[in-house]
Design goal:
Elements: E1 8-12, H1 16-28, E2 32-36, H2 39-48, E3 53-57, H3 64-71, E4 83-87, E5 103-106, H4 111-127, E6 132-136, H5 140-152, E7 156-160, H6 163-173, E8 177-181, H7 189-198, E9 207-210, H8 223-229, E10 233-235, H9 240-251, H10 255-258
Helix pairs in contact: 2-3, 5-9, 6-7
Length: 260
Amino acid sequence: MKEERRRSILLVDDDKHILKVLGDYLTFKGFDVVVAESGEVGLKKIAISPPDIILLDISMPGIGGIGFLQRIMLSNGTLRYPVLVFTARTMTEDYFRGLSVDGFIAKPCEESDLLSKVQEILEKHKRVTRKTILVGEDDPVVAKQLVTVLRNAGFDVETAATGPDVLGKAAVCLPDAIIVKHILTGMNGDAVVSILRAMPLTQSTPVVLYDASRAANKQYPADHLLHAVGIQKSLATDNASSLLNAVQEVLRLPDQARRT
């Protein structure tokens, strides 16, 4: 029988005592716990290994909890990861309006209450899992069409208008798939994919490359180029429905096929 994966928790708090006590408790309860003493360190930890849930203190030096939340927010206002916020008793939920956090728990709290809240949030996200698609397109009209079609199909969508922006956003939001235009401002799509394949966290992310200017050549790029660069699907069109179908197809590929 396959052993179930341990769920991971990122605990962000500038109180070393809390990091120690709650970190030890949650580890004992079967979680993989990573701790960070500031929002800035927390963002670096996410870039190394995305957590299943984040436990976040709000009152910290530097960017603080609010700045941390703003940096893990998707363009539609939702957060990339489930977040349980530690609050002072004087704070109200109005303080966090618009930040779409999953829950609040006052400090100090009972460890058993914290565990129950964590399990409740994880179960909710287990039932409702939305995949994120990153779109690399420098034409705002085409980008808007893609975003609309993908969101209507139930995906969360991030956009980037240049090749370097695709690389930067891919490293932060860790999309489930990437749609990228071949001739793209700053760096062409195939060059972007080559770099993505060299980055540990994106080396197996499915990629759809498209180029409407090559509509006359249905085999562009050639199959050998697709496998050499690491592109799963190539389309000679920027039609949003066709690209949606391609994304849905590559997301159904087994992991081994994605890495070929």
